[in-house]
Amino acid sequence: MRMKTLVSTMALTIALYGCGRENASTDASAETEQATMSEAVNEDIGDLFAGIEPATTDNEAANILLSPFDGPYNGVPHFDQWDISGIKPALEAAMEKNLAEVDAIVNNPEEPTFANTIIALEKTGDEIGRGFAYWGIWSSNMSSPEFRDIQSELAPVLSEFFSKINQNEALFARVKAVYEGEEYKTLRPDQQRLVWLTYDGFASNGATLEGEAKQRYADINKRLAELHTKFANNVLHDEEEYAIYFDEDEASGLPTDFMAAAKSAAEAKPGDGAYAVTNTRSSMDPFLTFADNRDLRQQVWEMYYSRGDHGDEYDNNALIAEILQLRDERVKLLGYPNYAAWRLQNRMAKTPEAAFGLMEAVWPAAVARVEEEVAEMQEIVDAEGGGFEIAPWDYRYYMEKVRKAKYDLNSDEVKQYLQLDKLREAMFMVAGELFNFKFTPIEDGVVPVWQEDVHVWEVTDKTSGKLIGVWYLDPFARQGKRSGAWASGFRGHETLDGVEKTVLATNNSNFVEPAPGQPVLVSWDDAETFFHEFGHALHYLSSNVDYPTLNGGVRDYTEFQSQLLERWLSTDKVIDNYLVHAETGEAMPEELVNKIKAASTFKQGFDTTEYLASALVDMKFHMVDPTGIDPDKFERETLAELGMPDELPMRHRSPHFGHIFSGEGYSAGYYGYMWADVLTADAAEAFAEAPGGFYDKEVAKKLVDNLFAVRNAVDPADAYRAFRGRDANIEALMRDRGFPIPGSDSDKQTIE
Fold first, then answer.
1. Which of 14, 47, 440, 534 makes a 20 to 30 Å CA pair with 486?
2. Which cofactor(s) does the record list (predicted)?
3. SS3 state at 280
């Protein structure tokens, strides 16, 4: 059943599955042993699924979505043949097939074993997995009113399907028997972890409930699936429907490349003005940074931060209240005091109190830095005779002025050296140096893609030439594509049938597409995000696990690998060879490089505080009694209690906080970015201290072997200790951000 059938429905809509490659250190004897083991397991399972026919329907478009990937690279999705009319019948047929597979396992008269229960479950769900590969693209990259109608219709149906499996008493009894049986003690460590993850997936999702409680749990999941879907679609509606238009005489301060993109946006969706700021971060952020027109800045700020909060049919506040109430009721059926306690039990933090401990250790320093930043900005406003106090729509604009005054560093000047294509080449270089990967472009048309802007690369081992997988890049914002940046995949690494499966991984961004013939120039922050998401792809591609379920991860740990990769953007090898001027092709001057490095902790007050505010509100939302909660009021009162500065907002206001309300992947878990950042800062120091710096071969091998290749086959705390030789502590994070270090050496705070 592959762990994907044990998680919430809407978490699947993004299709975030792990990817991988065989560890370069694997020798022939190990390969032979693995093949022998797979043959024995397959023989042990025998004819368990022999009588089950492949999932098919009378709908030809549906059968395309259900059929095995074919073509080059051991098979790729049929994006050249897909049609949205097939998705509903395809998933309906796939669910029926998956339930038949589960029944076959349940009705097996033999005693439960690792092979006939756990591995058998791993072998189920192929069709629904392929269906969700297409679903994820329609949901995140190519949404439309037609798909949203289908999505809303299927969300409760899918939830019922997952409940039938999660709450299957006979199936859980077999899994429990393996988990508690003598055979468990004889299994390899990765196999034991697979058994535990499978057992816990059932136990944490209502399998232990009985009678009315079991039915109520299923009903709650069904309703939550509907609410999560509606929340996400409401946000997407506001992102698509709102824009701020302006003319040439209102464009003072805006860079040429932004103006060209804004003109293209206005032409694509005409309004009252020659230029348009769309309702996405990639459009909002540069406008608020450079636009001299304060009234327009306020309009753009209010448009962006009011997504999902307009008091109309697309308003999300009532949905949030119901989501919180249902989540609270559901976990109390399982005996937990609140949703956060349930969510964190198997995360690195373990408890909400531990997560709070980390955030509260950093919060005072972050807020103090905001006060310093605001004071510096206010001096400029007063000197210019502005006659106003810094407001949220002023922060980015005046911080840019402080940057210029304090470091003589102009963000627009830096952008001229940050070309998207060159950044991609830099990422490939880093992947080659650390992971021994080679990325080779695949000619257009060889591998089907879902949109003409998407391009594809072959990934191989530099030394052996062995095929690792395929990497897709979907870089530009467009109608129907959700905002932000993310990584996903269509197929992960496994050796379940004795054959190593190649990886199909994707990166997705929302860069503003430039005017024809113009380079894509991005900010330093966006360049870091590009590297960040590529880190997720490398995590997929590096996998050497045998079982699909082990390609997953622990949320407050999996961000660590991607955050760490951001550090290579500022290494000399990248700067000297890939950050070249868009017009002249000249390398970035040493003087500018020194300014960038000198300003490395610049604006940390803003960046840390806006993030932590969202993380703290998320955690508090999921720890209180939500009966009668008013989300807007709760958000305001919580921020006031925290002492949130008036001059900036939380990064994601509640009505558009998709991380926690359009699904459950980050709910009571947004703190995980900070938890992972402690690991990141600590691991970065390991490279900085090594003889070869960030390209040290020995440290890189330890990184890949212990922190990337093992995916979820090893407990994250153990994996980190294997890399670093100890637990991480927050001192590295505080140094990294330029914050004072609390306490003394005798009371260092560590995270495990």
1. 440
2. Zn(2+)
3. coil
State pLDDT tens for residues 518-530.
899 999 999 999 9
For 620-667, the pLDDT digits (tens) are: 999 999 999 999 999 999 999 999 999 999 999 999 999 999 999 899
On whether residue 545 sits in a domain, the answer given is no
* Partners of 397 in the β-ladder: none
User: CA-to-CA distance for 186 and 166, rounded, in angstroms?
Assistant: 27
d(CA 661, CA 638): 18
Is residue 264 within 8 A of residue 243, CB to CB? The reply is no
Q: What does the alpha-carbon distance between residue 504 and residue 19 come to, in Å, rounded to a whole number?
A: 7
pLDDT at 224 over 90: yes
- Domain ranges, residue 610: 317-409+603-670
Residues 64 and 201 in one domain: yes
469 CB-contact burial (10 Å; exposed 0-12 / middle 13-18 / buried 19+): buried
54 and 194 inside one domain: yes
Is 150 inside any structural domain?
Answer: yes
Give the CA distances from residue 526 to residues 281, 400, 438, 584, 743, in Å, rounded to whole numbers and listed in that order.
10, 16, 24, 22, 34
What confidence score (pLDDT) does residue 35 get?
38
pTM of the model: 0.87
Domain boundary among 152, 186, 208: 208
If asked whether residues 64 and 204 sit together in one domain, one would say: yes
- Which of 670, 703, 725 corresponds to the end of one domain? 670
Based on its alpha-carbon atoms, the radius of gyration of the chain, rounded to whole angstroms, reads 26
Find out whether 38 and 498 touch, Cβ atoms under 8 Å: yes
CA distances from 682 to 28, 537, 671, 700, 712 (A): 35, 22, 17, 15, 21
Q: In this structure, are 203 and 254 located in the same domain?
A: no
Residues near 745 by Cβ (< 8 Å), separated by ≥ 6? Answer: none
Look at residue 743 in the predicted model and tell me its pLDDT: 63
Q: How far apart are the first and last CA of the chain?
A: 30
Number of domains in the chain: 3
Residue 696 forms part of a structural domain: no
pLDDT digits (tens, 9 = 90+) for 573-625: 999 999 999 999 999 999 999 999 999 899 999 999 999 999 999 999 999 99
DSSP 8-state assignment for residue 419: B
Q: Sort strands 275-278 and 437-441 into parallel, antiparallel or unpaired.
A: unpaired
With residues binned 3-state (H G I as helix, E B as strand, rest as coil), the percentages for the chain, rounded to 5, are 60, 10, 35
Q: Of 323, 347, 281, 303, whose CA–CA distance to 662 is shortest? A: 323
Check: CB of residue 620 under 8 Å from CB of residue 356: no
Q: Tell whether the model's pLDDT for residue 744 goes beyond 50.
A: no
440 in any annotated domain:
no
Q: Comparing C-alpha atoms, which of 205, 179, 180, 176 is closest to residue 191?
A: 179
Angle at 728 between CA 727 and CA 731, to 5 degrees: 140
Co-location of 69 and 123 in the same domain: yes
Give the phi and the psi of residue 518 in degrees, each rounded to 5: -100, 145
The CATH code of the domain that includes 321 is: 1.10.1370.10
| Residues 60 and 173 grouped into a single domain | yes
Give long-range contacts, CB 8 A cutoff, 24+ apart: 210-218.
213/333, 214/167, 216/329, 216/333, 217/163, 217/167, 217/330, 217/333, 218/159, 218/160, 218/163, 218/167
Element (H, E) at 610: helix 604-621
Residues 160, 266, single domain; the answer is no
